[in-house]
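Batch manifest line 768
LIGAND: magnesium ion
JOB: complex structure
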Amino acid sequence: MAALKRNIWALYFLLVTVGFVLLAVALHQRWQALISDETSYQLSRAELISQSVHSLLRTQELVLDVVGRELLNNGKPLSDQRQIPLLDSIMSVNPALAGFGLARPDGTFVRMSTNVDPAGLLNLMESPVTGADFRRTLESDTMVVGRTYYLEAVSEWIIPIRKALRSEQGDVIAVMTAGLELGADGSVLDRNLHDGEDDSVILFRETDGYVQFMSREGVGPEQFSSIQVNQEQLASQRREFEARAGRTISDIMASREAAIFTMDRAGSEYLTASIYDPRYHLWTVSETRFAPLYREFIGTLIPYLLSFAAGGWLLFILFRIIDRAEKERRQELLHQARHDDLTGLLNRAGLLDRLENRLIRARPFSLVVINIDNFSGINDRFGLEYGDHTLVEFGRRLERLAEEHDDLARLGSDEFAIITPNTDVAPLMQACTNLVEDLAEIFEVGRLRLQVGASVGIARFPEDGDSLSKLIRSAHLALYEAKQSRNAVCVYKAEMETAYLRRLTVEQRLRYGLASHALYMVYQPQVSDAGKTIGLEALVRWQDEELGFVSPAEFVDVAEKSGLMIPLGNFVLDTSLREFRQLLDKVQQPLDLAINISVIQFCQPGFVDTVLNALKTHDVSPSSLVLEITETLFMGNFDQVLQTICDLRNHGIRLAMDDFGTGYSSLSLLRQLPLDELKIDKSFVDGIVEDEKAANMVRSIVAIARSHNMSLIAEGVEEQAQAQALIKMGCLRFQGYCFSRPVVMADIRQMLSDTANTDNTPATIRRS
Ligand code: C2E
Ligand code: MG
Ligand code: MG
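JOB STATUS: finished
ARTIFACT:
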């Protein structure tokens, strides 16, 4: 049944086979009916003819008896030959007879009807045709039927019938003989008893096998009278028949019903019905060749076969239509199963198929995985409908940009893939970079003008993975790296594997570290040009049992990308404010506390409240707090960020732009931002003394701060010369190893108390 469901043609062939079997059964029954009809016909014809012949002979036997006795009763001696007119009148009422004759026991004729020419009569005892039968007549009490022969005396073919007339003592006095006319129309032995050229009626003699009568197309007495049934052949046929029918020949001969059998004769097959007349030792055979039966059967077979063929053909057409519809449906389902509804590109399953095919072909190719940057932002901000539009547009652009032999797919929500035969790194990188640039073009959805960035990871077959899973993993690692490094395109490198594993471990350990209080805070003093500590930057530290010391640059990054930034940020805020409060309680000195805030924290709904609550909890004035933010913050929703900055500032909290100059902030952006402080990045401070470019950069930053009315602080000051150069340029606040490394709060307290006692700064600034 399952096979039928799977393949409709199996059902077709089953139906055709069933149809064929039914046809075969119907034809078989038709054949059986044909044979049965023919059998009945032959049997009844044989019986009918046998009975008619028997009655005819019986009647004629009586006539012979009566006429013979009458002739003898005349008492005339049988010495002279005479024609008797009386016999003619008997013949006239008995049209079956061709002539009468009375012979002496020695075979010579003595009396005859007038139509018989005595000159044409032979001695019955001596003639080879009549001798044997005549002798039998002399011995028999019943009438004996003689061999068919041509009687010159009446110029006709006759069947002689003879009966011995006996005295009261039983001696034969004479033999009454007559000739039955052969083949007269309408008579019992009509020569047209047969039905067509394949049909015949035969009477033959049991005694010697000679044919007595035959009604067959083109055969007359001249032919059949000399036919003698081959006795050997007859005997073997009888044996075969006895074996097949389970009846003996004597049974059949004694039976009053005809028997039917088939036989092969001279290369033809016959259906033969036979019945025996024991009184006259005559077999009546009614037979037909099978050929007309076959012809008739074929005549009925043809319409059957034509109907079967027509039915089969119609069914075939129907099944072909169904099959095609089914195939189309399957094709459609397969297409659906392998394609993405939204973009019409291949889906993950479709891509896996193509990849597998390429792996089998074993020709080099590259798998390029493309991820839309911050796609969830579009969904969150504008709704799913816009998200969908973006994906469709992105897919369309990919299609436009892809080359002829590339396969395109959408792997998941915002992830796309290209399989390309291109594997040369440089052109591939270039093509992908161009792709990212093209994809980044602005497009319109309704009234919105959207722009999306994308990151690309590339893995090549076979060098970056010789199996499907390895190759996909490599491409994703490269994509991951692209996202991490903010380089739009990355080609897989083995090192990425280690970096990825490191990230996984860091993430896992950090989760544990946050829960098990393995993190703590250190503080780096910020000093004025007079060498006085005016503030502290809170910096988080993590000493892990397994990993040892992990740099905050590394684990903060991991936290940002793994959802750990919020608990980490809360820990920093809470711990640093608590320790700051404790410090303030000990040292009576105005101090600022600078805390680094990650983008994720800053964009978290309720961030302002979180800060205010923490300030309140630890009783720290908002005016002492400086929040350090970075330029990456403005890559997202600018309006929202601006709103949060304003809220914070309205509560008296200040904001500093960390690492200023390393990002991409434009002056126009800066103009719109209500910031309180710029932190000159260490990279400019590093080269400030000898690198004119760096010095110029610092001068520009000082000018910007002044023009925007912002305070300035330089970080990463390691040498006195750098501090002095900065002072010269107009930056009067510093942070760096030159003054102090970041230390725990206890050390800060110690440092500040020492300073208060000695009135010394951590490191004095020498003014030039
Ligand atoms: P940042 O906010 O720019 O912090 C300044 C970094 O420069 C600190 O590194 C500090 O130890 C280092 N530094 C200060 N003076 C010198 C110097 O003279 N020479 C040198 N070579 N380095 C100096 P740190 O603590 O490793 O922090 C690295 C970055 O990690 C920070 O850069 C900040 O972006 C992030 N970070 C550290 N703590 C936190 C935190 O509590 N919250 C957040 N969100 N980020 C933090
Ligand atoms: Mg900082
Ligand atoms: Mg910095």
